[in-house]
Amino acid sequence: MLNITKTQNGFQLNNLIYLFDGNAEVISESQCHIPTNIGVILLDLSCTINNKLYNNIDNFVTELYK
Prior knowledge:
Elements: E1 3-7, E2 10-13, E3 16-19, E4 25-26, E5 31-36, E6 39-44, E7 48-49, E8 52-53, H1 57-65
Parallel strand pairs: 1-7
Antiparallel strand pairs: 1-2, 2-3, 4-5, 5-6, 7-8
């Protein structure tokens, strides 16, 4: 399980910092595309945000962008 750490205007994943570059696109009940300065990143509910697990993709996206 990968943990996403929120940062100002973005997030850190696998020691890389990604900055938001647009709105998320939910593509399924468990996956979303996140546009960043590095490219579009596919995230899913197997990831945690600040060590918190989510079971709803809409809540996941809302927390990520909060």
